[in-house]
Amino acid sequence: MRMRRDVPRDFVPDGPAGDLARGVMRLFADLGQSCITELPLGNGRRVDVMALNRSGSLTVVEIKTSAADYRSDRKWHEYLAYCDAFYFAVPDVFDRSLLPSGVGVIVADGWGGAILTASPDFKLAPARRKAVTLRFARTAGHRLMRLERPYAG
């Protein structure tokens, strides 16, 4: 049996990006939200972290480990149509003046994070909300199945 495309081999990346992802997930867990990393979207992009709260609100977090990482990435605009809130998560030493206005900012490390700037509201269309929520749930379910009973091969 082959590996499904929506189940990446590593759920959380290694290195500095992985540390930031873990800190972001700990922050959102403290806020009562569930998170998933490396979630593929309908537009072919893959978000670094997505959080889902009890009311169904979806938050996308784009991780940037350095100024060079931020400058080389122009795809973040494509995530806005798939979330209710959008944040950049950066390390404490990141020059936050590089980040655009009109988005949220989180400072994180491997142990946690803090929201420095709240995200404005991005209203998700109802049909897309359903599709993204189902993708979140199905991806989480596939990953849990893999942990409990790995796919053969």
Order of helix and strand elements from N to C terminus = HEEEHEEEH
Coarse structural class: alpha/beta
- Spatial order of strands in the largest sheet: 1-2-3-4-5-6
CATH topology: Trna Endonuclease, Chain: A, domain 1
Helix segment tally = 3
Biggest sheet features: 6 strands, mixed
Global geometry: globular
Task: Describe the protein.
The protein has one domain (15-141): 3-Layer(aba) Sandwich (Trna Endonuclease, Chain: A, domain 1), CATH 3.40.1350. The model is unreliable at 1-9 (pLDDT under 50). The chain is built from three helices and six strands, in the order αβββαβββα. The chain has a six-stranded mixed sheet. The longest helix has 23 residues, at 126-148. It has 153 residues and is of the alpha/beta class. The chain has helices at residues 15-30, 67-71, 126-148; strands spanning 34-40, 46-52, 58-63, 85-90, 104-109, 112-117. The termini are close together.
Question: What would the keywords be for this entry?
Answer:
single chain, 153 residues, alpha/beta, Trna Endonuclease, Chain: A, domain 1, 6-stranded mixed sheet, 25% strand, globular
Topology:
Elements: H1 15-30, E1 34-40, E2 46-52, E3 58-63, H2 67-71, E4 85-90, E5 104-109, E6 112-117, H3 126-148
Parallel strand pairs: 3-4, 4-5
Antiparallel strand pairs: 1-2, 2-3, 5-6
